[in-house]
Specification:
Elements lengths: L3 E7 L3 E7 L5 E7 L4 E6 L7 E7 L1 H23 L7 E6 L16 H5 L2 E7 L2 E4 L12 E6 L1 H11 L5
Antiparallel strand pairs: 1-2, 2-3, 3-4, 4-5, 6-9, 7-8, 7-9
Length: 164
Amino acid sequence: MGLRIEKIDLPGIGIRHDIVTKLGRHIGVLNYRDGRRELAFYDSEDPDTVLESVDLDTDEADALADLLGHTALLSQIADLGSGTLGLFTEQLILPMDSRYLDKPLGETKARTKTGCSIVAILRGEAVVPSPMPEEILLLDDILIAVGTRTGLDKLEHILAQADG
């Protein structure tokens, strides 16, 4: 059995989205009309029986969605750069004394100098996918880069160059 997603309208209550996993587990997200959200885990033998539920306020629901989104994105990137094709994925932290701090990403000339692509920037709880050259690099940014081992080493060296 493959992954299945179902949408169920609950008249007067809201909408329920269920995910039925490959192993047959039922997980539901209930979006109530009044804005409340609930994460529910159902009995695999009886999908109408809730085994456990968790009420989430808006901030908690957004944080969970961000977390799941980040995890999925990083997993996809990791699969791409597993090294089997000579490509690797690396998370590079912009050093606090880097000459590129508070400067546009394009100033690094990463692709030209190293052949590596910066495919995303993790910034706190946010992800900047496919950052443009004009994206300003900030303290504590984590750059997700894909390239050869040699190229990634060069990129790490470039980012570590101190200002001044």
